[in-house]
Amino acid sequence: MSEAVVGKLAASLARGGVYSAWVGLNEAGIAEALAREAFDAVTLDMQHGGVDFVGASRAIQAVALAGKPTIVRVNVGDFATASRLADAGAAGVIAPMINSGVEARQFAAFMKFPPLGRRSWGPRACVPLSGLPGPAYLHGANAITLAIAMVETREALDALDDIVGADGIDGVFVGPADLSIALSVGERLDPHGALVDAALTKVAASAKAHGKFAGLFCFDGVGAKTARERGFALTSISTDALLLRAAAKRELDAAR
């Protein structure tokens, strides 16, 4: 059932957590297929994946047919597209490289209607997918359309409380690969290393203190389970491309 899927994301996070599929291929059928598994949501990647705006809009509808909400990661600083995706029915938008409270508030302003933000009125698919008629959507959208700031730099960690505590920011999401590069000053890619691990503890604690949720990109189900136990309510599990390659390798190994 496609009605009221937008609000499912906030409700699931409030109940304890969300395991999300991660999709970088610009094909709505892939997003829908993963949504029909036991994932709680699907995240579309416009930053490093091949998903464009039209592809994201179609995928949001396809995922909604499976009764699931969609999150979209936009490009760095592309807050205008974040607002368009909210109109298209995205339940949440992840904004990468948020490094200050000022940037967090700028992002939130595009995601939230007044008085909290400055999102302009032009709802399209979001109204039927929210289950709220026009006037009710205006007053209810801020609670169910989530602004999620990425923490993946030294600057972001230094400004963590300002970012997490910014009005209109619902949660933060850690990119462990970029964070490991930043913390090692470009020396290594080590998303599971000690520096990142210490940062994850700090992020989870800050989110809890501010009454927000923390999220983490995870490379597999074991990592997602561990992250949930550490206080990360929103976790991805692998990616569409990684799952496809793993399944192909497993079946080819069996055949040979």
What does this entry look like structurally?
The chain has 256 residues and is α/β, with parallel strands linked by helices. The chain has a single domain, classed as Phosphoenolpyruvate-binding domains (TIM Barrel, Alpha-Beta Barrel). Helices cover 50% and strands 15% of the residues. The protein contains 13 helices and eight strands. It has an eight-stranded parallel beta barrel with strand order 1-2-3-4-5-6-7-8, surrounded by eight helices. Strand 1, helix 2 and strand 2 form a beta-alpha-beta unit. It is globular, with a radius of gyration of 17 Å. The N and C termini lie far apart (42 Å). The mean pLDDT is 96.
Could you name the CATH topology?
A: TIM Barrel
- Please identify the top-level CATH class: Alpha Beta
- Tally of strands: 8
Q: What gyration radius follows from the Cα positions, in whole Å?
A: 17 Å
Strand order of the largest sheet: 1-2-3-4-5-6-7-8
Gross morphology is globular
CATH superfamily (homologous) name:
Phosphoenolpyruvate-binding domains
Gross CATH architecture = Alpha-Beta Barrel
What portion of residues belong to β-strands?
5-15%
Main pleated sheet? 8 strands, parallel, barrel
Q: Specify the helix fraction band.
A: 40-55%
- The total count of helices amounts to 13
Give helix and strand order, one letter per element, not per position.
Answer: HEHEHEHEHHHEHHEHHEHEH
